[in-house]
Write a structure and sequence with these properties.
Helices cover 39% and strands 12% of the residues. With 564 residues, the protein is of the alpha/beta class.
Length: 564
């Protein structure tokens, strides 16, 4: 509306449309100018961006899309920290699981990463420990831990139904406390059930109750009496052992084996197979638990030692199955011999007699350029990743001990835990539990030689269908490990048959189960020539077990297994 003049008349234009047209033209010119300026500024910014980045290409759009996906995934899984726990958790980050294990190798056998278990969760206790780049994205291990002056690593099995983890701000503890919904006051023949309250249990409790019993008083008393005898005679025995050990030692390292006459053919096969392959046995020291085995070992050119005080009551027969009386008795001998050699200040490679060498394994443990050289102890992976052997799964039939104050105290502690051996029938249980404590308590650095490594296979690979391709490659010569350990096998008879089928048996039948005097009485030659074959004595026995030659016409040994 146009305001009237002083005399009240409205001004009159000769053409009412001209003013409107002029205004429209001015608005159009203004918009055009603004657009031109915007275009010019955009062009300048675009040129600057192009010149300041690496040569950009068409992948930038896809990279942007990928970044948006990662940001979406990150924001989906991150959460804000409530103020009530901010003194406990200031932030939560994530890193690639494989990269984390490569950087921080605590020695446990690593399970393969898989979908849903591809990253490691890192909780930051204070704002000063937070990474510079923040925690709203996946970081490199170095970036994620840059401000961590200390870090505690906890393992827990993934994807466990009804499992919860509670982290409480409290005075320091280096153990995990476990609760389960089990009936009160009952530990055997029980099952987890949601109707029960959570109650405190041991780490060896499973869904069906306790897996391992506390040693019975009778076993404790029996072992204490045995231990008194051993410790009372220790100084005297060490004096007898010193010159023999010194002669066998090279680079302060000795290879130790324990054998009774019942297992002597396996000892002979080890020696004969090494001779056939040209492998040096000068560092091997056999602790014979009877005179017959001592004579056989020396007849094969091996150093041998017989402790009449502690070994006189050891069983002479072979064990018929795992953890029977003969087996358990030999476990104590295995403990004593490593303890004694360690006390004398030597590094020890201990191995059972059911092992063959393809290469001298000391090359692995004594090579200072080996990335794993810094560990105190090394164990073959037993393969059975069960709760009672967690987290190291150590096979106590093949392990290396580097002498230092940590391993010396470990061997003493293991000796004191002998009543667990008496209870369980195996020193594998005692070994696993003592390793756990000393790794945490004393900083003992333990390495399990992962079952997925090529270098140290055993019965797990031989018997498990999922390892068939590995065994095929081994028998075809595509893989050359250091050793093969015929573990996971019921008795020495089957071990002999399996070695024959693999092409790793080198002992003539005339020497199996015999004594040195009988063998030499019927052969005018030395023991090695009488007993050792220069070539493997290959025979078929079972079509469902690994074989060097086709064995399809042989019967199976395991029910339901197809031909190998």
């Amino acid at each position: 509306m146009v305001a009237p003049t002083r005399n009240g008349r409205v001004p009159h234009h000769r053409n009412g449309k001209s003013a409107t047209s002029l205004l429209s033209i001015r608005i159009a010119l203004f918009c055009f100018g603004l657009s031109l300026v915007s275009f010019y500024m955009g062009l300048l910014l675009g040129i600057h961006s192009w010149s300041s980045c690496p040569p950009c290409n068409d992948s930038s759009a896809s990279q942007t899309a990928k970044n948006k996906e990662e940001e979406a995934a990150t924001s989906e899984h991150f959460f804000s920290i409530p103020p009530t726990v901010q003194k406990l958790v200031a932030g939560v980050g994530r890193v690639n699981r494989d990269a984390f294990f490569a950087k921080f190798d605590v020695g446990v056998p690593k399970d393969k990463s898989e979908k849903g278990n591809e990253q490691v969760l890192i909780m930051y206790n204070h704002e000063k420990s937070l990474p510079t780049k923040g925690v709203d994205r996946t970081l490199s291990v170095e970036d994620a831990t840059e401000h961590c002056h200390s870090m505690k690593l906890v393992f827990t099995e993934p994807n466990q139904k009804h499992q919860c983890l509670a982290i409480a701000g409290q005075w320091e503890s280096y153990h995990v406390y476990k609760y389960m919904r089990l009936p009160p006051g009952k530990d055997k023949k029980v099952e987890v059930n949601g109707k029960y309250d959570l109650r405190y249990v041991s780490r060896l409790h499973g869904d069906k109750g306790l897996q391992q019993q506390i040693p019975f008083p009778t076993n404790v008393k029996t072992y204490d009496e045995t231990l008194v005898t051993y410790l009372s005679s220790l100084d005297k025995v060490l004096e007898e052992l010193k010159p023999i050990a010194a002669k066998a030692a090279k680079d302060n390292t000795i290879i130790v084996m324990v054998c009774n006459h019942g297992q002597s053919e396996l000892l002979m096969n080890f020696a004969c197979s090494c001779k056939a392959r040209g492998l040096d046995l000068s560092q091997v020291l056999v602790f014979a638990t009877d005179v017959e085995t001592k004579e056989l070992a020396e007849g094969l050119g091996l150093a041998a030692f017989y402790d009449s005080t502690n070994f006189a009551k050891m069983p002479e027969k072979a064990a018929r199955f795992y953890a029977d009386a003969a087996f358990s008795g030999m476990m104590m001998a295995k403990l004593y011999c490593v303890h004694m050699i360690n006390l004398l200040g030597y590094n020890v490679l201990f191995q059972d007699v059911d092992i063959v060498w393809y290469r001298n394994p000391l090359e692995f443990f004594t090579n200072s350029s080996n990335p794993l050289y810094h560990f105190d102890m090394y164990f073959q992976d037993d393969g059975a990743h069960t709760r009672r052997y967690a987290p190291y799964s150590p096979n106590s039939g093949f392990y290396f001990v580097r002498h230092n104050e940590r391993t010396e105290y470990f061997m003493h502690s293991l000796l004191m835990a002998g009543n667990i051996i008496a209870q369980s029938g195996s020193h594998q249980n005692a070994m696993a539990s003592t390793l756990n404590e000393h790794a945490s308590w004393r900083g003992l650095h333990v390495k399990t030689l992962d079952r997925d490594m090529d270098e140290f296979p055993g019965g797990f690979h031989f018997h498990q269908p999922g390892r068939k391709q590995y065994m095929k490659d081994l028998l075809a010569g595509k893989i050359k490990p250091y050793i093969f350990h015929m573990s996971w096998t019921a008795n020495k008879d089957n071990k002999k048959l399996y070695f024959e089928q693999m092409g790793d048996w080198y002992v003539h039948d005339v020497c199996v189960g015999s004594t040195a005097s009988k063998i030499l009485a019927s052969h005018e030659t030395n023991l090695a020539k009488a007993c050792c074959s220069a070539e493997p004595l290959i025979k078929c026995h079972y079509r469902d077990k690994p074989s060097k030659i086709p064995c399809k016409d042989s019967p199976p040994i395991d029910k339901g297994h197809v031909s190998w």
